[in-house]
Amino acid sequence: MNSPEALPFDAATVLGAGLMGRLLALTLARRGCQVSLHDAGGQEADGAAARVAAAMLAPLAESAVAPASVVRMGQYGLDRWPELLESLAQPVFFQREGTLVLWHRQDAPEAARFAGVLARTVSEVPGLPAMQRLDAAGVDAIEPAIGKRFAQGLLLPGEGQLDNRQLLAALLTSLQALPNVRMHWHSARAPGDFEPGESERIIDCRGLGAKPQWSNLRGVRGEVIRVHAPEVSLRRPTRLVHPRYPLYIAPKPDGVFVIGATEIESEDMSPASVRSTLELLSAAYSVHSGFAEARILEISTQCRPTLPDNLPAIRWLAPRVMQVNGLYRHGFLIAPAMLDTTIELLTANTSALASSFALATE
Ligand SMILES: Cc1cc2nc3c(=O)[nH]c(=O)nc-3n(C[C@H](O)[C@H](O)[C@H](O)COP(=O)(O)OP(=O)(O)OC[C@H]3O[C@@H](n4cnc5c(N)ncnc54)[C@H](O)[C@@H]3O)c2cc1C
């Protein structure tokens, strides 16, 4: 929760109006700050990783590729999101129906390794609901649209998802309603463009755009496909164990599904490759043949802003200039933890939350 203490400054310039920038700008403005928000792109968040993301909130599933600190931040986020969403001007789709994990027979060894890592996470992180092993009838019972096509699966109870684009739009509307917020679109800026006085702060949330000031940031390319498949009814995000990257199908409102995501060590933002597109669409088709008749709405590419250890960090670049970055593939999962920790640091220059998450702050 945000500290009730008064902020020791009364004006803030937030650079980047993606996920973290919008959340921080709104929180600071509601705490009485005069906020200027700059983004290199437009108000649709067209330059943000946040616009392309699937926005799954899956701490246990992510533990296959992330340490316990990220899992704990994710648990915090799952509980905190409803409160954050409740305060917004427009409704945002959010659910906690769990994650279903499936695999084809040939990927059974990889699935066994995945299940082993998750079992270890559950034993290490208190409060995580245990995963449930399913046979074909069990998969059919919770996701009848899939039927008995898969001999085995795992259910990760309590995991969630939200609609990223509804969230970005609701944050925008909430910001627009505040008289103490000024938004500047198509306004690429760097921290050095400003000279903050005693009672001002710069908060740099430019994701990969902060690379000139954070040299070991890198982009991790992800390709995703949005389809409209009104005849497919999946209740929860479904992950397919895959030897190269965990593939998923995330249902969104109105028959839309996000199928993703590749994970490629590259900052190449060029359009998706044929190979990735084939892999993603075949994965979806193998889970539900109804995807054959789906209509492709969009094939997008973005890069996840990532630090060398793949972990998020908050640091002071200069007195009164804070940077929040490295949210990698977990941005929505950990955003509430990053938000509340940043507010604690901005308020008191120390954060109990940061210590509890073992989060790097300098
Ligand atoms: C394919 C893909 C799938 C993902 N799936 C998930 C998922 O399922 N769950 C999950 O939790 N996370 C997911 N993520 C990760 C999540 O999207 C990111 O971690 C998150 O968006 C990072 O937030 P951010 O605010 O740091 O950066 P961004 O959201 O990228 O926002 C940065 C903003 O800064 C702006 N900017 C850049 N340079 C400048 C400049 N010079 N001046 C002003 N503005 C500038 C950009 O235009 C942008 O709007 C996914 C990401 C990708 C790419």
What do these coordinates show?
This protein has 362 residues and is of the alpha/beta class. Helices cover 31% and strands 24% of the residues. It has ten helices and 18 strands. Helix 1 links the parallel strand 1 and strand 2. The radius of gyration is 20 Å and the shape is globular. Bound molecules: flavin-adenine dinucleotide. Flavin-adenine dinucleotide (FAD) binds next to helix 1, helix 2, strand 11, strand 15 and helix 9.
Concise synopsis of the structure shown:
The protein is an alpha/beta fold and 362 residues long.
Note the topology.
Layout: E1 11-15, H1 19-30, E2 34-38, H2 49-52, E3 56-57, H3 59-62, H4 68-86, E4 94-95, E5 99-102, H5 108-124, E6 132-135, H6 136-142, E7 152-156, E8 160-162, H7 164-176, E9 181-184, E10 200-204, E11 218-228, E12 238-240, E13 247-251, E14 256-260, H8 274-287, E15 295-306, E16 313-318, E17 321-325, H9 331-348, H10 352-356, E18 360-361
Parallel strand pairs: 1-2, 1-10, 2-9, 5-12, 10-17, 16-18
Antiparallel strand pairs: 3-8, 4-8, 5-7, 6-7, 11-14, 11-15, 12-13, 13-14, 16-17
Bound molecules: flavin-adenine dinucleotide.
- Helix and strand content put the structural class at alpha/beta
Question: What's the CATH architecture of the largest domain?
Answer: 2-Layer Sandwich
What binds here, in terms of ligands, is:
flavin-adenine dinucleotide
CATH class category of the largest domain: Alpha Beta
EC number: 1.4.3.3
Catalytic activity: a D-alpha-amino acid + O2 + H2O = a 2-oxocarboxylate + H2O2 + NH4(+)
Pfam families: DAO (PF01266)
Protein name: D-amino-acid oxidase
